[in-house]
Design a protein that fits this description.
The protein is mostly helical. It has 21 helices and no strands. The protein starts with a helix and ends with a helix.
């Protein structure tokens, strides 16, 4: 019979180092607390927040820095390309050289780049610093899930993954509000610079606490970085992201189509190289064995599709509120609070829903978002251009609730069965799917929105574009619910 002491010892050993368990007394001393969770989620939050928060600063940049529309566009483009193109490489670096080490390096680089953004004297300096921010975020983000996967197990891992989903959603939901509050406060006359400078003290604190609270882990016995894979995947993802994020603004010139066409052979060559390396027993950037797990494969596709809805929803909602109804950035941000309330309530309930319903908890969440989108479109139609946007609050709560039911369980589902030695690399694939979904959603829904609203939209045009976008997003959510049915039942219950 197994004693209680033996069970406790085994649990501790599996949490600290699944690959090589230390003696029980060492394991107990090394057992990570939830302080480690808070430290890595702080890094996750600020890096994801910078994807959304910069939109709030656009009017100030145009006024104070005399930024052109092309320069404004490049602020978002450089960050997005640096992030999306390097996430898989960032995850692999964590597996090879230590996730805590690479996480700390990424936070340090992100903090320095944020300071450079806040002190930039011209748009060129700001654009270059934003590119460095994106590359630094690509080092940070995959390490977070890698650290959580290897540091926690059982109930602790469930709590950690749920907290990850909450942090991820909170950065998106409250980006508008946080940015509006910082610019409105105008601390020390910093205006738009405050949205970047706020990262500096947070980054310094995270750097100070990481060595003390976060356990180190890496994939033992695997050496060398697949530089051919790095070049191919970076070039291939850039060839996808670059035209998507700036194509619509430039009316889809010929080069954007050539660029996207070039992505196909580049990514095909990348996958072929990964299969060859794996067959030889070498260390590929992304192990093909990851995709033999149906939960990981289907879940990764579901993540890409689902996040295309989330990012585009926040974009068109901000345009609708600020341009269609004339609310300020701060007022618009405050209207995101009901959305956040629904999100947090659902996030707290999500583990219970997942335990009872399995994969159908994700179906329920996706269908709630779809219903909320349709109800929101009907509400916007009834309001016209003169109705009070306060009437939007109930449907925003519904949309936020549905989002919360999906994000945390989906994270657990995709990564639950991943072997510890592939943790950060799998997290890089996961995060790349998320970012590619963001970019794809903004590109597709941007075409739908402005196609309906027109090139020079009126207030009514913004409302019409918003309504059509919501119907398309509702359809995508139904597609997510259908994809969920392909997930294995046992993995969905994990």
């Amino acid at each position: 019979m197994t004693t209680e002491a033996e069970i406790t010892s085994a649990d501790v050993r599996s949490i600290v180092a699944p690959e090589a368990a230390p003696p029980p007394e060492e394991a107990a001393a090394a057992k990570p607390s939830y302080g480690a969770l808070l430290v890595v989620l702080a890094g996750l939050f600020i890096t994801n927040l910078d994807f959304f928060i910069v939109n709030v600063a656009i009017p100030s940049l145009q006024t104070n820095m005399h930024a052109t529309s092309a320069e404004i566009q490049l602020i978002a483009v450089t960050f997005t390309i640096g992030l999306a193109a390097l996430l898989i490489t960032g995850g692999r670096l964590g597996d090879l050289y230590g996730r805590r080490k690479v996480y700390s390096a990424g936070v340090l680089l992100f903090t320095v780049a944020s300071l450079a953004c806040g002190l930039a004297q011209n748009m060129t300096e700001l654009i270059v610093a934003r590119g460095v921010q994106g590359a630094a975020a690509a080092l940070v983000i995959p390490q977070v899930l890698g650290i959580l996967t290897t540091a926690y197990s059982g109930k602790q891992r469930e709590v950690a993954f749920n907290a990850y989903g909450i942090a991820l959603g909170a950065a998106a939901v409250f980006g508008q509000l946080i940015g509006g509050l910082l610019i409105q406060a105008d601390l020390f006359g910093s205006d738009w610079r405050s949205i970047f400078l706020i990262n500096v003290p947070i980054g310094v604190l995270v750097l100070a606490l990481t060595p003390k609270l976060v356990p180190e882990s890496k994939a033992e016995g695997r050496t060398g970085l697949d530089w051919t894979g790095v070049v191919l995947v970076t070039a291939g993802l850039t060839a996808v992201v670059l035209p998507l994020v700036i194509g619509r603004e430039q009316d889809w010139p010929v080069w954007t189509w050539y660029c996207m066409a070039a992505a196909v052979p580049l990514l095909g060559a990348f996958w072929a190289s990964q299969r060859r390396l794996a067959a030889r027993g070498s260390s590929p950037l992304v192990s093909p064995s990851l995709f033999r797990d149906r939960a990981f494969t289907v879940g990764s596709v579901a993540i890409l599709v689902y996040f295309s809805v989330m990012a585009s929803f926040f974009l068109v909602l901000a345009l609708y509120l600020q341009q269609g109804h004339g609310t300020s950035a701060l007022e618009s941000g405050l209207l995101f609070v009901p959305l956040g309330l629904g999100f947090f309530v659902a996030s707290a309930m999500a583990p219970k829903f997942a335990a009872k319903l399995g994969r159908q908890a994700l179906t329920l969440g996706a269908l709630v978002v779809a219903a909320g989108d349709v109800a929101f479109a009907q509400t916007a139609s009834a309001l016209g251009t003169s109705g009070s946007v306060a009437w939007c609050i109930p449907v925003m709560v519904v949309c936020g609730f549905g989002m919360g039911l999906v994000v945390a369980p989906l994270t657990s589902l995709v990564l639950e069965s991943v072997a510890p030695e592939h943790a950060a690399a799998a997290s890089g694939v996961f995060s790349t799917g998320q970012e590619m979904g963001n970019v794809l959603g903004i590109a597709v829904i941007g075409v739908v929105f402005f196609g309906e609203a027109g090139d020079h939209p009126t207030a009514q045009g913004y409302g019409d574009g918003f309504m059509l976008s919501l119907y398309v997003q509702a359809g995508i959510c139904v597609l997510v619910a259908a994809l969920v049915q392909l997930l294995p039942r046992k993995a969905a219950k994990a």
